[in-house]
Amino acid sequence: MTYLTVKSCIASLAVSIGCSLANAEVPALYAGADLTQGSQLMGQHKCSACHQRNVGGDGNDIYNPKGRINTLGLLRGMVEACNTQLNLGLFPDEVNSIAAVLNRDHYKLKQ
Ligand code: HEC
Question: In this predicted model, what pLDDT tens digit does every residue of 51-103 receive, in sequence order?
Fold first, then answer.
């Protein structure tokens, strides 16, 4: 019983630390982005699998090879363009969440 309580306490602590870090990583323009949802959607829609076929490695070299995408608005627009082109059927809040993950992991844009 005690063990369980301690365990769930640690678990909820980890979750709350995770959340506060996550929020600090979301720029104002992407307010409301859900980074966990964003990563899940990227797995689900095989974003990396296709990018790997194009650039090799882990596929991450596809992200901003020429610095062409240099604002948060452009980045989200690019995700939306892929969404439309590939007919992924993502909702705007999902596109927002994916853009936030890409920005946190690759683009690191401030505005
Ligand atoms: C069927 C293949 C395919 C799938 C699936 C795919 N992409 Fe792409 N993506 C590409 C190709 C090819 C490019 C390079 C286009 C270019 O450079 O003009 C690209 C480029 C991009 C770029 C722009 C990179 C840059 O900085 O110039 C972003 C952002 C992107 N994809 C996001 C996504 C996301 C998010 C998903 C999943 C929801 C996704 N893509 C799924 C093929 C794919």
Answer: 899 899 989 888 988 888 999 999 999 999 999 999 999 999 999 999 999 99
Contact 70, 111 (CB under 8 A): no
Model's pTM, two decimal places? 0.80
Q: Whose CA is nearest to atom 7 of ligand 1?
A: 47
64 in ligand 1 pocket by Cβ < 6 Å? yes
Q: Where are the domains of the chain?
A: 2-107
- CA 53/CA 51 separation, integer angstroms: 5
H helices present in the chain, as ranges: 2-24, 35-44, 47-55, 72-85, 92-102
